[in-house]
Amino acid sequence: LLANGDSRYPEVTEDGRYVVFQSVATNLVAGDVNGAADVYLVDRTLGTITLVSVSTLGVQQNFGSYAPRACDVSDDGRYVAWVTLATNLSTYDKFGSGDRDVYYRDLTAGTTTLVSIAYLGDQRDTGWEPSVSADGSLVSFTSGSWLIHPDDSDSNDDVFVWHRSTGYLEIASQTAAGYGGTGGNSRRSRITPDGRYVVFESSATDLHADDTTTSQDIYLRDRTTGTTELVSYNSDGTVYSGSYSTSSPGCVEAAVSADGRYVSFYGGRWMTDCEATGAYLRDRTDSVTELIGIPRWWWPYVSGDGWEPQVTDDDSKVLMR
Question: What is the pTM of this model?
Fold first, then answer.
């Protein structure tokens, strides 16, 4: 039986067994009566579908969410993080339907936890764009609240990492001094399966000494060494200098291989000798930036764009649209 409403924003585990997605359909599971966009998990091996977006008590969320990067899942299918406008999933969520929040569901234990919670223990901030490590122990996400961490001093968007075991939040979009980046927003993170690396896009001006421009750039946080690295260098070693705007979005949509060596992203201005926008791949080991968008048939030196490039965990392929 096909879904009777739109289903969007899927994420798939590395082995292809589990798929999470968001849907406004009302016939995917019995008893779906909340009239909101919900998050579901499909087990392709067992042929089952599970409603994820409920409280610990099993209450269905009273508001949904329609944002891209709406959900993610651990490799074993046990843990799912999602973004929602709901106000009835946690006693900490007090401020109405205008705030997006990140929640985390343990499907084995049947518990739901608020991830985007202020460091004072009183929910009054926001969160979206979750990315889950392979074992589900870590979740990276975006928040625009300066109350979520004591070392975040402004209301610009920053990237954070939540620890399941302790509830601790760390800043991933972090300067050398240990503070959240300023002068711009940091967004759309992805965390590697082992949780060591977090990639994200940012227009902040103080995350790396080489970044002297105001354009949107790609960064990588190495949580083991405690360093934030600029990734979006041009092929000649200079720093990307494209402008950030609707028509020229700078460098966006970063993804990273499991070992952290390769980072794929979209560049809104040419970064190689081939004057083209499109998908790029950065080899951090060899310090090489390569245009990987498919050339147009009428001019082999111009890229065919290549939006939303995503390098695979084993770095053997890059998928794009």
Answer: 0.91
